[in-house]
Amino acid sequence: MCGVFGIINHSEASKLTHLGLHALQHRGQESAGIVTSDGGQLLQHRGMGLVHDVFPEQQLERLTGKNAIGHVRYSTAGGSALKNAQPIAVNYSRGCLAVAHNGNLTNAEALRERLEERGSIFQSMSDTEVIVHLIAASVQHTVEDRIADALTQVRGAYSLLFLTEDKMIAVRDPRGIRPLCIGKLRGEENVHTVASEPSSFDLIDAEFVRNVEPGEMVVFTESSVRSMRPFSSMPQSSCIFEYVYFARPDAVLDGISVYEARKNLGRALAREHAIDADLVIPVPDSGVPATIGYAEAAGLPFEMGLVRSHYVGRTFIEPSQSIRHFGVRLKLSPVGSMLAGKRVVVVDDSIVRGTTSRKIVKMLRDAGAKEVHMRISSPPNQWPCYYGIDTPTRAELIASSHSVEEINQYITSDTLGYLSLDSMKRAVLACRTAPEPPKPNGNGIHLPVLGPSTPEDFCDACWSGNYPVRFIPHSGQRQMRLMDI
């Protein structure tokens, strides 16, 4: 997962992009970058680390121009290195181009080999660079047509922002796997912004306009907005894991409130896996809304029995397993006075390898908990994600080779209950707002009708193994040959 943000036609584009990326920091903590356009050239800065570390004030002052795109990253395709940071900015025969990508291409390796046979030289291991080379090789005339030509050749998940000397272009893949939305700065007629989540808009005083629809390309200039449909339509496959874990709770994605969806997941979990207990506690922060819903449906007190240090990042997206192990102990502390002698229900959003849950159960028992009942607001994770979430290989996913009771024994909880796949989908869909009818809104952008409306409109591959887009595996020899040391 990564986060993208862009803005066009504002004198402080780099500073607003910097703020927008702050609101997307939860989507990636390895690197950050901003590219701006002053109408004649692109200026860029990328660095490893968090947004506030990569962009001191003096660096933002150097990024002049009225248009900008930005990116926060954690690695899926390509390693954790500066050469793989985004946005990627290039000069080629048709001018300047920068691209920021959220998602993952499933046929990137095959395309890379074909391009290299034709003479392309790659500078990174990022699958996004494949898109850049395809655009450069296109014989189409306009940049929009070259981008469309390139994207008809790729498969997988992509929410993309492109920046040229005078345009910003937003594209979402035909299945709408990763989110992307459009906003407009309040009080400004022609200042538009695009982000992975609408939470970015609140920080810069922009209003949410709508989501970029699956398979749509939106072209922004300083005076106009134009929508195109260059791709064949496909069934929608929005990533339901966004609602379970990844998106910020205050986000509304494709007409569904993430916060309300997580509360509803907790309610459904309580109905499926009721237990006699004294209190319900979350694994903070991502487990909090589901715990509120569970406590409400179960009629049990909600308590913050685990205190989180907010000076530690999200352990799920730390690239190193050793860092992830250390982060659990550094991140969470039990409240012993609340837990002593109590029967405790612990609600979390997922169990991946099981090591984190095992440590949490041990912490609670050491703090005096009489019983520990683990409840998970999603089904067992049995399959890796090939569309932009850095889940482990199937062999590393504990649920791929162990039953629920075996996992329960491994994490040493008294009982373990997962939410069923059908209940998860129904719980999320129940929070969908009624779509508005399409109509002009005065700036060239029509309001959408689309969004997940049936259980089949979600991608659930990490639980079911039903992949909407085929993944083409490769040997990994290229990564070994080009590995940084």
Describe this structure in words.
This protein is 29% helix and 24% strand. The protein contains 17 helices and 23 strands. The strands form six sheets. The chain has a seven-stranded antiparallel sheet with strand order 3-2-4-1-10-9-11. A six-stranded antiparallel sheet has the order 5-6-7-8-12-13, with helices on one face. A four-stranded parallel sheet has the order 17-20-21-22, with helices on both faces. Strand 12 and strand 13 form a beta hairpin. The two termini are 25 Å apart.
Structural class: alpha+beta
Weakly predicted, low-confidence segments? 475-485
- Range of strand content: 15-25%
Largest sheet: 7 strands, antiparallel
CATH-defined topology of the largest domain:
Glutamine Phosphoribosylpyrophosphate, subunit 1, domain 1
Oligomer: single chain
Question: How many DSSP helices?
Answer: 17
Q: Report how far the terminal alpha carbons are from each other.
A: 25 Å
* CATH homologous superfamily (4th level) name of the largest domain: Aminohydrolase, N-terminal nucleophile (Ntn) domain
**CATH architecture type of the largest domain:** 4-Layer Sandwich
